[in-house]
Amino acid sequence: MNTRYFLMLKMLFMRSPMKRADYMRKKGVFHSMGEKVMVTSRKIPLYSRLISIGNNVWMASGVSFITHDVCHFMLNGRKKWDEARFEEKIGCIEIGDNVFIGSDVLILYDVKVGNNVVIAAGSLVNRDVPDNSIVGGVPAKVIGNFEDFAEKRRQYHIQYPANNAKQFVSQECEDIMWELFHRERL
């Protein structure tokens, strides 16, 4: 069995995204992987050794790293180009320290994500992301400053009951969150 698929099968049964990241680090799945990394995905990208992940990186569900394309197959299949042979395009991806990558983000090859970065959910990252920035959109563009975001989040305080259930909210917490949601829309 292909090692990549064996590793993904093993990760399928790991509930903790932190343990999953530790397992990937131990197995050398990526070129490098720092400490305090959370990987929710159980999918290992093709050419994963072309990906470097820094320290304190948190990846939500559905994050995809694309280290290659397969356009060469299409180009090589055209009659017009019978003599030409097109090669597969591959490239590296580097993720800096203190990075949050939102759900369903797609990061393409030849991209460096700087330090202290937040990438908004659903973004397509097709060019380098500067340090200390918030990016979002398709394609991703700078939409804010990391320090401003951190300060705004520091001031965010909602009093809701402790939520000890893993990956579920208590009924009491759920009721409070819906009440707040509707109150903000009056």
UniProtKB/TrEMBL annotation:
PROSITE patterns given in the database record: HEXAPEP_TRANSFERASES
UniProt keyword list: Repeat, Transferase
CDD domains according to UniProt: LbH_MAT_like (cd04647)
InterPro entries listed in its UniProt record: Hexapep, Hexapep_transf_CS, Hexapeptide_acetyltransf, Trimer_LpxA-like_sf
Stored Pfam families: Hexapep
Source taxon at top rank: Bacteria
Family statement: Belongs to the transferase hexapeptide repeat family.
PANTHER family: ACETYLTRANSFERASE C18B11.09C-RELATED, SIALIC ACID SYNTHASE-RELATED
Name of protein: Acyltransferase
